[in-house]
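Sequence in, structure out. First:
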Amino acid sequence: MLTMTSFVIIIIVYSLLFHVYGLQQTSSHNIQEASSPFPSDFLFGTASSAYQYEGAFLTDGKSLNNWDVFTHEHSGEIHDGSNGDTSVDQYHRFMEDIQLMNFLGVNSYRFSISWSRVLPRGRFGGINYSGIKYYNILIDTLIRIKPFVTLNHVDYPQELEMRFQSWLSPEMQKEFTHLADICFKHFGDRVKYWTTINEPNQQLILSYLWGIFPPSRCSSPYGNCSQGNSESEPFIAAHNMILAHAKAVTIYGTKYQKEQNGSIGIVVQTSWFEPISDSFEDKEAAERAQSFYSNWILDPIIYGEYPKEMATILGPALPQFSSNEVKNLKNYRADFIGINHYTSYFIQDCLISTCTTGYGASKAEGFALKLDRKGNVSIGELTDVDWQHIDPKGFRKMLNYLKHRYPNIPMFITENGFGHLQKPETTVKELLHDTKRIQYMSGYLEALQAAMRDGANVKGYFAWSLLDNFEWLYGHKLRFGLFHVDYTTLKRTPKQSASWYKNFIEEQVNTRDLMDESYIFNL
């Protein structure tokens, strides 16, 4: 029989137990609600490329590449007449830049190999061991920061253009395979993430359809070039790029991967294409736009065939894979795909419907007109950069689209960032207080987290870019960096976005730690 005192004690004990247990459950729930979908092995990094960063124009045995020649002979095509001769001089300043990465807390750095620095004449000459030494030192100095290496990011030895027109010839497959083999052999013991070619889909459009990137080949009405055929050459060059990628993957898989324990993929440019209306025609056009853009490359490297929409529209202009090539593509397919994503567009049908001329409206682009407005409604927030529209929802849609089209293939966001177009009146203070970049990154990283909760198998995110750099036709006037670069002194100065990205990464790590502690406490 309980006494009154005993009863009161029991009530107090039960109350305390309920209170502690309830707090524990609530705390755990709150942590889980606020939890990050990023696993402990997720890569947070920054991205760069050899021509845009390294400088050291003809230093230590490097030869002329296609962009060296283009920027010197056609400086008027560059917004500010500049070039990559010096750029941000990472070739001599990589130690400083690695310190900036350590400040950010990133655990990976994406960079590319300068083909003309390692193999100045391709197979027509020997290995430049000064170039090999540079990349060995860079990789060794990164230490805890994992190297994520792209074999080819647009630039290649000019001699290959002069000898056989580079990507228009099957000879380029042999050249690229040779480059890949050399890099796997010399760097693969420390590099666990490889990508073959950066944005072949975008490179093909700019170089062989519109002719505004070297080798400047196109035909009317797509562009004003002295040579080229816009309705055949992009697809010939793409075919050689895809087969070059496949041969590099095969070499890695058969000769190096088991011992080196790494992975290999490819990087494509993606944009979200939103049908401009709910009509069947515009929905079909949006799918065609994807097929003539990212799917153009991804379908062959994963499934061994081009998208059906391309085959239907292009007919014999689209090259065919041999049975052996299809077998090789399927047997040695990419371990992952890299996604460079910046923007979205509305898409209007031009195959069946009456359509104005413009980007995407042609046969070679799938009869799918790209627009930034639907009446008075823009596709996200428009910016001073005519192709960049801030649309995080489109990013989430893009990742879900890829998840469904290529199930179970891991993805890395290999580039994402905001470009600030510097005008004559723009001050350094304005460039450093880059609140628009923070808004952009915050929105896109939230969209990334949402897509991962939807089931998108994303393994890493790389901000473009660590530093302001040479941005192709924009020269040094378009600034994507988390760190500002004074192009006179080459001084690096952190922008507000650098601190924001640093804090974001720290928050993800701290949230995971809290989750781990909560899990242990609940055991």
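Second:
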Amino acid sequence: RPGLRMAPLWPCVLVAATGILAADPPPLGDPTLLHLTKHLLQQYHKEVRPVHNWVEPTTVYLDLIVHAVLDVDVQNQKLKTSVWYREVWYDEFLAWNSSLFDEIREISLPLSAIWAPDIIINEFVETERSPDLSYVYVNSSGTIKNSKPIQVVSACSLQTYAFPFDIQNCSLTFSSILHTVEDVDLRFLRNREDIKRDKKAFLNDNEWELLSVTPVYNILQNSAGDFAQIQFNMVIRRRPLAYVVSLLIPSIFLMLIDLGSFYLPANCRARIVFKTSVLVGYTVFRVNMANEVPRSTGSTSLIGVFFTVCMAFLVLSLSKSILLIRFLHNEQCSGWEQPLLCLQKDSDADGPGVDPGTWCAGITESSVYQEHQAQPETLKEVWFQLRSINTHLQTQDQVEQQGVQWLALLYRFDQLLFRSYLLVLGLYAVTLCSLWVLWSGS
């Protein structure tokens, strides 16, 4: 009877054991993935280009997305950009039938374990900086996808003539180091128009704005063979508003103040003080803004030429005013000294012991003495005095006439400087407006 009581419990035990086994199935995914990886890499040789027929080239598809312009070094002619780089190629030795491996259609493999094209950027001037992404995606058809972000420091011919309305055109050229076009050929991953107009990923909150990225395919021919190249021409332009507010407008105000000094009299000493103050202020402004204007040994910015010309005009006008004041002062002193010398000569003719300082004091004594002299001597003395007075008046007239002539000459020179100043400012304003229009229409 105890055996009969235990018999109904056996079906329950069997059902419970079956449920436990069904709740914890054996892991099938990991062994299958591991088996697929071993199947692909067990007899794989990464030193050999992955084609069955060595005559057929391996086509590498490239794509480039510009993310940001990090730095523009005009002095060293270098451009630092952040880009997203993608390359896709077909590996005939890494294809499999997904139905034999639990429908696995894509896996990741280490890049160091497979063959990869030796594609570099020809304009590299520093070591590339990118995250260490050591894996690539491989699908069942043998297509390999390698994507990574790169900080590229490349050489570029930067022109600063139109600063701050400058537009720069820099290129990134991708090509193979050793493989000719018969072995490795390059193609575009996307349509050229899509690459040119794609600016969605670009950061527009910095100083530079991306206009376009134009892709160009060409073949470089040299003594080693023909090499396929893909060149991405990046066209960027500077946002000039910050430089217009902090650089152009203050410099124009200083030049207008300097123009106002031309309305002061040419022989006025206050004009020298005013122009000296403007020159000091302009020099301080140039020193403070020296780091704002890009410097290049190959080209000079238009705004730098304008600053130099304006400072030359300012120094020339100040030097002219100083020389004029000095010359008028010398003429005035010489005009007062000449009559004294004439009086000294006349008094020496009458008596060798009388000097010009005591001649006026002895007039009273001479008049008393002359009453006892003859009439011809009195007339002779009067004639000498009249001749001295005439000489003095003629000398003063000559000094005044020379001063008037110099003033007239300096006024004409002032007018010439003023008109030249206006001409330079007008040409500079027209040039800036033209550059702004070209910048807006680009």
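Remark: The chain has ten helices and ten strands.
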